[in-house]
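Give me structure tokens for this 180-residue protein.
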Amino acid sequence: MKYIALLRGINVGGKNRVPMNQLKQCLEKAGFQNVVTYINSGNVIFDYQAQDPPVLIEKCKEILEEEFKFPIDLALIDGESMREAIEHAPDWWGEDPNAKHNALFVIHPATAIDIVAKVGSTKPEYEQVFAYGPVIFWSAQLKTFSRTRWTKIVGTKAYKSVTIRNANTTRKVLEIALSH
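Here you go.
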């Protein structure tokens, strides 16, 4: 089965360094097939025998901590669920060049419903938010980005339960998953 692992908090400001070639090699050594990484932010696509996602998440976390010597949280989504989520993304997501468009991938055991509830109501004059499955789509105008409700989640418990990718990265990761 095709999976996408989105690692959280690596290679940011020189901290939690995870070289992508080393990441690929350690997963291959652990039996993962067709491992592909995309850019330096910890996007990994691989094939692995179908497994209960929470079990596979724990396996990935154990492998990564053993290899890199620090804990790494991650969101895991199978390729078909990722395709379905992107197909259900709202029309406004990823389109306006004057806005920032992010996908927030929820880290198990949290759910998108949990995260949306913790963050609270959006400020519709500044941002738009829509959740589908384990993905929260969020867009905000660049000129008023700092006024959004969702920028305030940094450092909160909700923030620690997601890993964020921009729309371009999200779409590219899906494209790679579908082509391998």
